[in-house]
Every structure is written in C-alpha cells, then in structure tokens.
C-alpha cells in the first residue's frame, strides 16, 4: 500500500521544539522530492518546506525560515521536520506530501500554547 504517515506532533509551549517524522511505504521513497504542508484552524493548506531527492536542496516559507529544518533519511524512507522556537501561529495539522504522486499523509497535530 502506497502511503505516508506522519508522527511527532503534540502540545508545546512557545519557544519550544518538536521533531516531526514522515515514513513512506509502497513506493521508491528515494526517487521523489517531498514537502511539508500545514493547515491552521479555519485556514487553507499552506506549503511549509521542500526537500530534493537527495536532500541537498531545501526550501522554506518565509514564516519558518531560520526556525525549521527539513531533512531526509532515504535508507529509512523517512523525512523529518525539526521545528525550533515554535510560535502560537505555528499551530496546525502538519502533513507530508509527494506532489508528483498526489500523495499526502493523514497529518499530525501541532499545538503551540502556554
């Protein structure tokens, strides 16, 4: 079964950190560029970050640049999002995505609140 599954979300105080993981299965993970997306309450889906096939090229939305780091471990079919200095406006459901496959995981909730 072709799928992506995210994990690592939770409740964290402002200024805290979380690391999200996304595990892919049923397809050749190492051949696809990937993204992290998020959807805040009452808002549309927003692109957060992108990583190339080999991991050398990364891109970030301006709102997270300098605080979030995307990475991947192809032998483990896993992509990560290290999130530091979290802010209340980072509260959202976070999804991993492979655009070329039309594939997105079920998401993991991140809540930043004191």
Summarize the model shown.
With 114 residues, this protein is mainly beta.
Give a description of the structure:
The chain has no helices and eleven strands. The radius of gyration is 13 Å and the shape is globular. It is an all-beta fold and 114 residues long. The model has no long low-confidence stretch (mean pLDDT 97).
Write the layout of secondary structure elements.
Layout: E1 3-7, E2 10-12, E3 18-25, E4 34-39, E5 45-51, E6 58-60, E7 68-73, E8 78-83, E9 92-98, E10 103-104, E11 108-112
Parallel strand pairs: 2-11
Antiparallel strand pairs: 1-3, 3-8, 4-5, 4-9, 5-6, 7-8, 9-10, 9-11
For the report, how would you describe the main beta sheet?
Answer: 7 strands, mixed
Report the sheet-strand fraction: over 45%
SSE string, helices as H and strands as E: EEEEEEEEEEE
Helical region count?
A: 0
Q: Can you tell me the overall shape?
A: globular
Number of strands: 11
Q: If you average the pLDDT, what whole number results?
A: 97
Low-pLDDT ranges: none
What is the distance, rounded to the nearest whole angstrom, between the alpha carbons of the first and last residues?
39 Å
Class from secondary-structure proportions: mainly beta
């Amino acid at each position: 079964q072709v799928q992506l599954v995210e994990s690592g979300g939770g409740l964290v105080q402002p200024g805290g950190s979380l690391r999200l993981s996304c595990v892919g299965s049923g397809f050749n993970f190492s051949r696809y560029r990937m993204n992290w997306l998020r959807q805040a309450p009452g808002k549309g889906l927003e692109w957060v970050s992108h990583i190339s096939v080999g991991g050398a090229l990364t891109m970030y939305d301006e709102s997270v640049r300098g605080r979030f780091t995307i990475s991947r471990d192809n032998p483990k079919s896993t992509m990560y999002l290290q999130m530091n200095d979290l802010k209340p406006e980072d509260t959202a459901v976070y999804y991993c995505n492979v655009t070329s496959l039309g594939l997105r995981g079920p998401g993991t909730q991140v809540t930043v609140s004191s």
